[in-house]
Structure formats: C-alpha cells, structure tokens
Amino acid sequence: MAEAFAAVQPMLDEYAELEEQLADPSVHAEAGRARTLGRRYAELGRVVAAHHAWEAAVGDLEAARSMAESDPEFAAEIPAMEAAVEDATERLRRILIPRDPDDSRDVIVEIKSGEGGDESALFAADLLKMYLRYAERQGWKAEVLDSTETELGGYRDISVAIKYKGNPDPENGVWAHLKYEGGVHRVQRVPSTESQGRIHTSAAGVLVYPEVEEVEEIELDMNDVRVDVYRSSGPGGQSVNTTDSAVRLTHEPTGIVAQCQNQKSQLQNKEAALRILKARILAAQKEAAEAEAQDMRKSQVRTVDRSERIRTYNYPENRINDHRTGYKAYNLDHVLGGDLQPVVQSAIDADEEARLAATES
Questions:
Q1: 18 with 114, same domain?
Q2: Beta bridge partners of 246
Q3: What is the pLDDT of residues 170-181, one digit of tens each?
Q4: Is residue 17 part of a domain?
Q5: What angle do CA 290, 295, 296 make, to 5 degrees?
Q6: Angstrom distance (rounded) from CA 274 to CA 261
Q7: Number of folded domains that form the chain
Q8: What CATH code is carried by the domain that includes residue 25?
C-alpha cells in the first residue's frame, strides 16, 4: 500500500523546504514572492495532513493485528480500524488528484448584458448582486473595477475583482469556486418593462479570469500596449466627466482590449485596466494551450467555449437549473440572495469525479 503513494515523498520534501523559506524574514520583504510560496505551502499542507492521517491509521491497524495474535480482545477493533484505513486512503487518493494550479488565485469577474436589451442589463445587475452577496458570505473582498450602467439601473458590462483574505488552501480559493461561472446565464421572467405580463427569456454572459500577480511573469511589453484616453460617460452616453480620465488599453499583438472609466483619476483607471488586460491575456494563453492539448484537459465541466449556456434562472417557478451538472432546486430567491454554494458545489463535485476518472483510466 505504501508503494501506491510513493509520489507523496517529493511533496513532503518540498513542504519542508518551503517551511524553511517562509521562516526567513527576508522572504516576507517581497510580498508577491511570499504570497506565491505561501499559496504552494498551503496546497502541500493538505497533502501532508492527509498523508499523516493515513500513516497513523495504517500504524494503528498494524499494531492491533499484532496484538490480536496474543490478545483476542484486540481482534474486535480490527474491522473499525480497517474502515479507518480505507477512509484515509480514499482521502489521500483524492487529494493527490492533479488540481488546477490556479485554484488559490483571486479572480476578475466580468458580466455583460446580451440578448434581451434593457431586461438583459437588469439581469446582469441581479447577477452582480448575487456574486457580491456570495463573496460576502465566503468572507471575500469585492472591488468594482469598471462598469457601464443603463438608465434603468442595469449594466451593459461590469468588471469586479474578488479576492481572498490571506493565503487560502487551493480548495477554498476564489478561482476554485468561481471558475465554473463562466458562460451564458439565461433568465425567464416577466420584465419590469413588460405591460402584458408575458414571460420573456433573455441572457447575460459571465467571464471569469484568474487575476495575475505582480510577481508572475506575463509577457507584456508596454511598448505593445496602445493607450487611449477619453472622457467617461454615464447611462445613455451622457458625459459625467469633463476631463479625459477614462483609459482604453489595446494589446496590439493579440488585439485584446481592456478599458476603465470608473476610477477617480486617469492613473487609477490605467492601473485597473491593466489588471483586467493582464487577466485577459493570461486567460487567452491558457485557452490556447488547452486547445493545443485537449486530450490532456482535466475539467469536463468548464469549457473554453464561453458561449455555452450553463444555467437557467426561472423566476415564475423560483427554479434554478445548472445544465452541465443536472443540479435543480426551487430556491432561486435564496440563490440570488447569495446562497450560491450548493450550485457551485455541484460543479466542483462533477469536475472532481471527471478528474478522478481521468487519472484511473
């Protein structure tokens, strides 16, 4: 049985090395490096704890079997100890499944109105509230980077950074939960603009990117980035700023664009737009790599095609359906109020089962 977990030893060695590095005060002088090391340390900590639990369970079982040879009373404890070893083995086996390396990252969520005009923009605002309330329940911090509002209080588009406070275990990271939200979200309800009481169907798109840390190397030469400035505008195109404080960044080699107009100054708008641009470039690089090696993809739940319709929100029936996992519940009001975890968990469970099956095939 020990041979089955031979891959653990290099992880135990790496964990010990990281422990020594993190004990060095000079490491913490570089916040970015300390965060990266801390994230890996937390990830390996789960493996170490599970391996110790497995070793303890195996040791207890072997001791009980040895003592049962001279004292039959110990034999009665063996079945329970065998069950404990099986549980510890399964726990360790699942933890050793290759994880998404971005799971402990913070994210940028973009919500864009789609089919349905004003109703779609209002639905985008409802999705925003859902994610903000969910983030609050999780103890995360949310920061609106940029938004374009409509006259009715909806959003044509909005970008929000969502951050974990501290260094999370990978399974508790923001990306580990919200990466499954990317896709088309469909709503069925009677719009506030509907005078005949008819149910309409509209949609909004959600894009989720892992946020890039400054310590990481993204091949972004600022000479390749065109910077355009313009005046901020409000709902309906009305100017809300008399200075050219809004910023649009265009990464010319890829054509990827990011813009921001909601911050107080041109410099702040440029910094926020740069965060979005880096996240989009990183996502594009990862999607290109996935496209080149589809046979090596671990996740069967999240797809590169963000045009995929992933979920339906049916207001008349108070129903929510996730079309990838088959999850269905009649508590839409609670979900929109931030109780999103059961829906997210259905995607996490489906993804884990797919990755587990891939490692065993």
A1: no
A2: 230
A3: 788 999 999 999
A4: yes
A5: 65
A6: 12
A7: 2
A8: 1.20.58
Query: Could you tell me if 82 and 181 lie in one domain?
Result: no
SS3 content of the chain, % helix, strand, coil (to 5): 50, 20, 30
113 and 90 together in one domain: no
d(CA 307, CA 326): 19
DSSP annotation of 204: E
Quick one: average pLDDT of 303-316? 74
- State the Cα–Cα distance between residues 277 and 271, nearest whole angstrom: 10
pLDDT value of position 301 = 43
pLDDT classification of 289: cutoffs 50, 70, 90: low
Q: Which of 65, 95, 125 is the last residue of a domain?
A: 95
Q: Do 334 and 319 touch, CB atoms closer than 8 A?
A: no
Per-residue pLDDT for 268 more than 70?
Answer: yes
Strands 246-251 and 256-260: antiparallel
Q: How far is the CA of 312 from the CAs of 12, 205, 345, in angstroms?
A: 44, 12, 17
**Coil, helix or strand at residue 142:** strand
Task: Count the Cβ atoms, other than its own, within 10 Å of residue 304.
Answer: 14
Cα distance between residue 241 and residue 265, in whole Å: 10
- Residue pLDDT, tens place only, 187-237: 999 987 776 778 888 999 999 999 887 545 566 888 899 999 987 776 544
